[in-house]
Design goal:
Elements (H helix, E strand, L loop, with lengths): L1 H15 L4 H28 L6 H11 L6 E11 L2 E10 L5 H7 L6 E10 L10 E2 L1
Parallel strand pairs: 1-4, 2-3
Antiparallel strand pairs: 1-2
Helix pairs in contact: 1-2
Amino acid sequence: MTSVFAIIALLGAKYYHWNWLDPFVGIIASFLIFRWTFMLLKDTSVILLDRGMDPMLSKKITEIIESDGDSKISDLHLWRVAQNKYACILSIVAKNPYPTNAYKNRLKGIKELAHITIEIEHCDEQQVPTTLNTL
């Protein structure tokens, strides 16, 4: 679009001697580019700064993993990797932990998860965290 404006400005200067048209179109084009840049930064900063976590998805993951009454999520990170697709890193603390695949199988029903990484820590009851750290 800015290139078309520049060509029109050059033709206007050549045929009609409107020498002011080229710098004027340059200023208008710079405002358009600034606006496009601002919108792009606004749309991508959520992803680039890892602020694209879906709170409902986080809650669903927590409910599924902690449904056995023993496993607790001590750390949960979700970030958007594509349109409606998320990568997930879970740290799970449990007295009697299940194998990693068992936890991954619990989360298979969540179609938004494209990649899951799970870390499991075995502990006694005094070490089980009561709060969840999320990003």
